[in-house]
């Protein structure tokens, strides 16, 4: 396994490896090249994964997608240490808790993020398919598609890769989460925190003195839209408060996004 060396001015590290030197870094990296690159680092080291993705494999063509939820500060902090100008995409569905919007603004200021892109659903789509704002009651999947998946698909069209904060411990459906995932569109999804545990997340919050989401104090462990999120019972699955009373477990953005067009 190759180690990291030569610190960059941003606080990241330049990956010095003959294997990496042969890789394409224009966003056209193949699956074999991704695997070889990942083998050069410790894939449980989120900073190393982020450095590899942000400064080597997808430099200039990668965005971080954040919900500014209960654990989001950790990934945002790690990315900001590398490059505060990394594009950060925030999906404002129009149904979010006011506390989430306030927390977003506080983290932007605290971490010095300079390129946060607030993405909203298309007004014509909302007027056509959810004029009364009650679609979430009738068809939660369609509501998520309208307010999350379609807007994200549109904004990610200009990127070769995107970074998520998903972790294996969060839910049974994420237990085999990989650091790199290829979507049908060809875009690569990067999950730097895939191997992190709840305890490691807590340690990072403490060591960096990061602020917590204000709703966490009220039992919210995973926070989405106010219409579809409840506090979680002690010891329950952290995502059990999402779409309570239904079989739905994902909003759809982490299911395979198709190619746009």
Write up what this structure looks like.
It contains 9 helices and 8 strands. It has helices at 18-21, 31-39, 46-57, 72-82, 98-111, 123-129, 135-138, 140-155, 198-208, and strands at 5-7, 13-14, 62-65, 88-91, 116-119, 161-163, 180-182, 188-190. The protein is of the alpha/beta class and 261 residues long.
The N- and C-terminal alpha carbons lie at a distance of 40 Å
Unreliable residue stretches: 1-11, 257-261
The percent range for strand residues is: 5-15%
The tally of helices reads 9
Strand order of the largest sheet: 5-4-3-6-8-7
What global shape is seen?
globular
Structural class comes to alpha/beta
Overall pLDDT score:
84
Summary keywords:
261 residues; alpha/beta; disordered N terminus
Brief write-up:
With 261 residues, this protein is of the alpha/beta class. The protein has helices at 18-21, 31-39, 46-57, 72-82, 98-111, 123-129, 135-138, 140-155, 198-208, and strands at residues 5-7, 13-14, 62-65, 88-91, 116-119, 161-163, 180-182, 188-190.
Question: How are the elements arranged and paired?
Answer:
Blueprint: E1 5-7, E2 13-14, H1 18-21, H2 31-39, H3 46-57, E3 62-65, H4 72-82, E4 88-91, H5 98-111, E5 116-119, H6 123-129, H7 135-138, H8 140-155, E6 161-163, E7 180-182, E8 188-190, H9 198-208
Parallel strand pairs: 3-4, 3-6, 4-5, 6-8
Antiparallel strand pairs: 1-2, 7-8
Helix pairs in contact: 3-4
């Amino acid at each position: 396994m190759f180690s990291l060396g030569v610190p960059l001015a941003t606080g990241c590290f330049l990956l010095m490896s003959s294997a990496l030197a042969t890789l394409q870094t224009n966003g056209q990296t193949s699956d074999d090249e991704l695997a070889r690159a990942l083998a050069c680092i410790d894939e449980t080291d989120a900073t190393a994964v982020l450095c590899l993705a942000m400064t080597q494999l997808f430099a200039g063509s990668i965005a971080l997608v954040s919900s500014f939820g209960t654990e989001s500060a950790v990934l945002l902090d790690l990315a900001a240490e590398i490059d505060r100008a990394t594009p950060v995409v925030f999906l404002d569905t129009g149904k979010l808790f006011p506390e989430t919007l306030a927390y977003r603004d506080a983290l932007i200021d605290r971490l010095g993020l300079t390129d946060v892109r607030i993405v909203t659903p298309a007004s014509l789509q909302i007027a056509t398919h959810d004029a009364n704002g009650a679609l979430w009651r009738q068809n939660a999947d369609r509501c998520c598609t309208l307010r999350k998946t379609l807007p994200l698909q549109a904004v990610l069209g200009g990127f070769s890769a995107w970074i998520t904060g998903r972790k294996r411990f969060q839910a049974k459906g994420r237990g085999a989460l990989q650091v790199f995932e290829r979507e049908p569109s060809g875009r690569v999804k990067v999950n730097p925190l895939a191997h992190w545990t709840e305890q490691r997340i807590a340690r990072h919050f403490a060591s960096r003195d990061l602020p917590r989401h204000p709703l966490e104090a009220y039992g919210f462990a995973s926070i989405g839209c106010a219409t579809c999120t409840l506090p979680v019972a002690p010891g329950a699955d952290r995502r059990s408060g999402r779409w309570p009373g239904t079989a739905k477990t994902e909003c759809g953005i982490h299911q395979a996004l198709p190619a746009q067009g």
